[in-house]
Amino acid sequence: MIIYNEPSSRFLEHIYENKIGYVLKENVKSLMNKSISASELRSWENSLPQMAKILRDASLKDNTHILLEYKLPSTEKRIDFLLAGHDKMGQKNAVIVELKQWQKAKVARGDGIVRTFLGQRERETVHPSYQALSYKRYLQSFNEALYQDSSAINLTSCAYLHNYIPARDQEPLLDSRYKNYLQEAPIYFQFNDRELAQKLKQDVSEGDGFEIAKSIEEGKIRPSKKLVETVNSLFQGNEEFILLDEQKVAYEKVITLFNEEISNSTDKHTIIIKGGPGTGKSVIGLNLMNHLLSKEITIEYITPNQAFREILRKKLIGSSGFVEIRDLFKGSASYVEAPNNYFDVLVCDEAHRLKNQGHMKRRIEGENQATQIIRASKLSVFFVDDNQVISNKDIGNFDLIKEEAEKQNSVVHVVELDSQFRCSGSGNYIDWLGHLLNESETPIALEGDFDFRVVDTPQELIQKVISEQNGRVMAGYAWDWNKKLVDDKLPNDVIVEEMDFAMPWNDPNRIDWAIHPDCAYQIGCIHTVQGLEMEYAGVIIGNDLGFDPETQTQTLVVRREHFKDKGARPAKPKKGQVDMLDVLVRNTYKTLMTRGMKGCYVYCCDGELGEFIREKMNCS
């Protein structure tokens, strides 16, 4: 969606008459039915007049076209400024200009990351050149008008920081670590205005940009052939993505349904695939994406968990180098404004983590994220496990999704997965763990090849899982999380005083904590690891879960005072009501203890709980 598409002469009129903010505000209201913030209005009124000066100095023809606030489909990202026109050789050109009001910046850790003052405090964000380049690559990979040879529109990008005076020595934004991004998307500072004007004059001086702008605005959004071929090549011969038994059945169910019921029909369908941890839900979903992409089907892959989404992206990007693959994966808040049936297929993994709100700044009455996904697609596919709900904000259970689909007259189909592809294929371990945490009256002996142990100290856990098995250690949310660095280091928040043990929570700036080598000696939290798997998993069970041998029934106990995830904690129940925190804590530890493919080692802060689990391991 583009909220402003006008010839440059009209744009300059709006600037000189001080109307540009009002015009954009009214366009947003009419096209998107939303209001804009005062800060966004100020941003337009501060930056766009600076671009007017550039256009005047470039002496562009009046019919060069200006596109403002181009919202990239199914994202919250918008391109600030885009010019369309011809050069003196008759070439069709479009130029992305990312506008920034920054005055200072610092080098930061991470590829393409800088620090600057945003929202009244210093924050990490992407380098302006990286941002401009990523928008260019997104359009070239997903907008047909920009990747089809017949259109032959040449797209370039740059950034303009009109308030920024660079340091004379060692300007952070020009640091060598950003060299590749600067080469492809140059950055222009306050006194580089003439150079930017010269670039625009070279690219679009001859104007006649109406048809170019129209092609970009109306271009169908679907992955380019190059992107599809790259994804397909990653699946061919890769054992990690081979479908086995009921995985294949579920996969074929979706493909057959699409071919026979959806491709030539206006009916809406929803498939809910139920499966516990390790039943191969993600493998099915990724294979669906790969197959349907190759059939020119408009599809996106949704994961509410950002960490899980980033790992999926890196698994594919890592071996191909094709970073645009990341744009096939979206968060669950991406479909607030998506039109009805805009997508052929939306696949939602980890659907139990869906939330009520579509976006933290907006809420459409009567809608939740499941509603929006179903509304936006002809076929919606949800992978769900009700027993992995770990927050009072998680609403995506089977019953809710089914109810939301039926409200929209979507035909509901249900598929169940049982076979275990994690935990050494041990259905016995999954059953035993379920009985342990849910305290079933029927005892089950722990059998099979899965390597499960209770260790005596957290140090032993670290040694066996990380040092010996190159695994990862996680913990329940039984410690506060101070995300501020102390002396440029992560604070040791996970503390077991009686064992003289302390380690930090996982780095919040490393979404790929589970696979990044620098993050091995950090403790992963439930929000970082859900959906992921590793060969060996270590779990510290905090004092939020314990065992009370003094009670007559000798039961597990959930201790509210030790549960520190304030955002996930439900209110205290009224007398006689079930405490939902009891369910969430048990689900959390079941989820953590099923991340391992070969083994799981556990340390219990409550020693009585450790002894209880050891007894249950040998129970028959």
From TrEMBL:
Residues 267-460 form the AAA+ ATPase domain. It comes from the Bacteria. SUPFAM superfamilies: P-loop containing nucleoside triphosphate hydrolases (SSF52540). InterPro entries: AAA+_ATPase, P-loop_NTPase, SLFN_3-like_DNA/RNA_helicase. This is DUF2075 family protein.
